[in-house]
């Protein structure tokens, strides 16, 4: 059945949208990722205008992060202090990002910037994950490596404004989480992602947080940052389609449950290598679309 | 050229409405050379909207040719031209058309160039290639302006907003005619003008303009209007909906 989406201003098949939500929900449950970085390109592939895909996906991530964070909170896996500092950076970053979005849209470059950001980040993250999980599989084969230091001391630990984060067992400069939050906030606004796929590695490798609190804390931050993006995108650009978000969400909730069950059947490294391949495939498709000679070099732009 | 008709139902509808119309117009002036109306004056875009047809029907007082032009509400259109930079196609040039019909289609009883001279056709903008789409003069040499114009038409045709072919006005006997006007699912909204011309020997004998409203109706319209008129409240509601949905999902999860 076709449904007319009021903000995207196109008719799409209801089952297609529910199915897409379900499929990406399944993948996010399977791999333990937010799925925004898969959903936004998928929406663009099926014909949703990129700005609407970005604004709507931010709205959907609010919902999926809420259901995720509640589960982690019950297990005590949220560092609220760290989350708060990340959030402060995130709010500033995402507000800046929405403004950037508005400017880029008015000069006709927003579609390009969205796609280029995806190609860059998906390419880098996919490649890193691929190499990392290959190495992990090899390490498992060569068996028992000794326990290393908790973390190495680098220039990062010389920065001022140090703060103690008890839950994460860290004493580091507040500038670090602020900066990470700021960058991820920009990405959330421009790319329509939660930013977990950037923030989680940054929290582990850059901040040195224990893995147990990383996911809960990042979800906590993502709720507020994507809520901020949703509000500002709706306010400044009118690109949030609630009807579309609800359809995707319904599918995603069911999909995520099935995905989480399926994830028990696969080992961590295998999962990560599959995810890496998926991420690289999406990246390759987007990159190909940017470089292939278009049917018509003249295109209609955004007009108000 | 008159063609036998295939859609009995449409005729019945047309003729029925015509009879009513006839009663209304009969009386003092027997000879309005051209009378036309639409099967509906409102195209409602609702949840299941996937495009629609509107029947235009009418009568003429004698032999002649009928041309129907559907004009969508004028809009501003921004266009970009891409060029390849470092292997990637990037928008590098931009052109703004201030007033462009958002929708355009033509139907005629014979092929347009048999009906009237090129002069008459271009004056009345009959046929998509004769559309008058003014560019800011300072911005483009005639050659380049032509490229932008053709590109605009091409893009609008690809969207389905400009018809690729001239539709048919079908005569039923000497005096009655009808034409089916098709609107795609992505039809622009606003007030349309339907122009109907009666031509004889290449000259316009009579013309009539009828409005047609294309609008979002029901929930779609309300969501759209709300999102634009109360953008801040809409944003807050969107967040609230997401929070509730997320919480519900969590509750459902816990049960399992």
Explain how this protein is built.
The complex is a heterodimer of chains A (304) and B (256). By secondary structure, chain A is mostly helical. Chain A has one domain (2-139, 154-291). In chain A, 71% of the residues lie in helices and 6% in strands. Chain A contains 10 helices and 5 strands. Chain A has helices at residues 14-31, 36-45, 50-74, 80-106, 110-142, 175-191, 196-207, 211-237, 242-263, 268-291; strands spanning 2-5, 10-13, 162-165, 170-173, 298-300. The longest helix of chain A is centred in the middle third of the chain and has 33 residues, at 110-142. Chain A is globular. By secondary structure, chain B is α+β, with helices and mostly antiparallel strands. Chain B folds into 2 domains: 8-217, Immunoglobulin-like; 218-256. Helices cover 32% and strands 37% of the residues of chain B. Chain B has helices at residues 8-25, 112-115, 118-123, 142-159, 219-229, 231-255, and strands at 34-38, 42-45, 52-60, 65-71, 74-85, 88-101, 104-108, 167-172, 176-183, 190-200, 203-216. Chain B has a 9-stranded mixed β-sheet with strand order 1-3-9-8-7-4-10-11-2. Chain B has a two-stranded antiparallel ribbon with strand order 5-6. In chain B, helix 5 (219-229) packs across helix 6. Residues 1-29 of chain B have low confidence and may be disordered. At the A-B interface, strand 1, helix 3, helix 8, helix 9 and strand 5 of A face strand 5, strand 6, helix 4, helix 5 and helix 6 of B. Strand 5 (298-300) of chain A pairs antiparallel with strand 5 (74-85) of chain B.
What does the secondary structure layout of this molecule look like, with pairings?
The complex is a heterodimer of chains A (304) and B (256).
Chain A: E1 2-5, E2 10-13, H1 14-31, H2 36-45, H3 50-74, H4 80-106, H5 110-142, E3 162-165, E4 170-173, H6 175-191, H7 196-207, H8 211-237, H9 242-263, H10 268-291, E5 298-300
Antiparallel strand pairs in A: 1-2, 3-4
Chain B: H1 8-25, E1 34-38, E2 42-45, E3 52-60, E4 65-71, E5 74-85, E6 88-101, E7 104-108, H2 112-115, H3 118-123, H4 142-159, E8 167-172, E9 176-183, E10 190-200, E11 203-216, H5 219-229, H6 231-255
Parallel strand pairs in B: 2-11, 7-8
Antiparallel strand pairs in B: 1-3, 3-9, 4-7, 4-10, 5-6, 8-9, 10-11
Helix pairs in contact in B: 5-6
């Amino acid at each position: 059945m076709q449904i007319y989406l009021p903000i995207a201003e196109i008719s799409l098949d209801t089952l297609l949208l529910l199915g897409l939500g379900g499929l990406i929900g399944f993948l996010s449950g399977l791999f333990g990722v937010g799925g925004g970085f898969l959903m936004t390109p998928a929406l663009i592939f099926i014909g949703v205008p990129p700005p609407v895909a970005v604004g709507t996906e931010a709205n959907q991530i609010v919902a999926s992060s809420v259901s995720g964070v509640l589960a982690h909170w019950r297990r005590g896996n949220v560092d609220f202090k760290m989350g708060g500092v990340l959030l402060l950076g995130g709010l500033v970053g995402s507000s800046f990002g929405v403004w950037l979005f508005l400017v880029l849209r008015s000069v006709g470059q927003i579609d390009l910037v969205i796609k280029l950001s995806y190609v860059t980040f998906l390419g880098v993250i996919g490649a890193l994950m691929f190499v990392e999980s290959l190495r992990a599989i090899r390490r498992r084969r060569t068996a028992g490596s000794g326990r290393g230091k908790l973390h190495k001391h680098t220039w990062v630990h010389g920065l001022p404004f140090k703060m103690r984060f008890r839950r994460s067992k860290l004493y580091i400069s507040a500038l670090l989480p602020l900066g990470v939050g700021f960058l991820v906030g920009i990405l959330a606004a421009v790319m329509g992602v939660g930013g977990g796929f950037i923030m989680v590695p940054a929290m582990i490798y850059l901040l040195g947080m224990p893995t147990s609190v990383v996911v809960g804390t990042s979800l906590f931050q993502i709720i507020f940052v994507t809520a901020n993006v949703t509000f500002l995108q709706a306010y400044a650009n009118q690109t949030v389609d609630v009807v579309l978000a609800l359809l995707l969400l319904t599918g995603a909730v069911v999909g995520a449950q099935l995905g989480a069950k399926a994830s028990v059947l696969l080992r961590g490294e295998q999962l990560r290598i599959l995810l890496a391949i998926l991420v690289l495939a999406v990246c390759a498709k987007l990159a190909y679309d940017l470089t292939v000679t278009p049917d018509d070099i003249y295109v209609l732009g955004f007009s108000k | 050229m008159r063609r036998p008709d295939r859609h009995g139902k449409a005729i019945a509808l047309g003729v029925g409405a015509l009879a009513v119309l006839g009663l209304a117009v009969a009386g003092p002036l027997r000879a309005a050379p051209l009378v036309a109306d639409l099967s509906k004056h409102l195209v409602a875009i609702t949840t299941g909207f996937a495009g629609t047809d509107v029947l235009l029907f009418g009568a003429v007082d004698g032999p002649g040719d009928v041309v129907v032009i559907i004009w969508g509400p004028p809009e501003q259109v921004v266009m970009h031209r891409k060029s390849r930079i470092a292997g990637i196609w990037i928008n590098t040039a931009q052109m703004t058309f201030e007033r462009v019909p958002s929708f355009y289609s033509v139907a005629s009883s014979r092929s347009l160039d048999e009906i009237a001279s090129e002069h008459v056709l271009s004056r009345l903008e009959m046929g998509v290639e004769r559309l008058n789409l003014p560019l800011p003069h300072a911005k483009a040499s005639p050659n380049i302006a032509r490229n932008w114009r053709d590109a605009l038409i091409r893009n609008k045709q690809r969207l389905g907003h400009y018809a690729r072919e001239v539709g048919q006005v079908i005569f039923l006997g000497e005096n009655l005619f009808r034409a089916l006007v098709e609107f795609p699912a992505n039809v622009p909204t606003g007030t349309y003008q339907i122009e109907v011309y009666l031509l004889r020997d290449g000259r316009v004998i009579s013309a009539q303009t009828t409005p047609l409203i294309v609008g979002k109706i029901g929930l779609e319209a309300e969501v759209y209007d709300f999102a634009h008129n109360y953008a801040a409240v809409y944003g807050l509601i969107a967040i609230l909906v997401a929070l509730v949905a997320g919480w519900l999902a969590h509750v459902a999860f816990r049960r399992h």
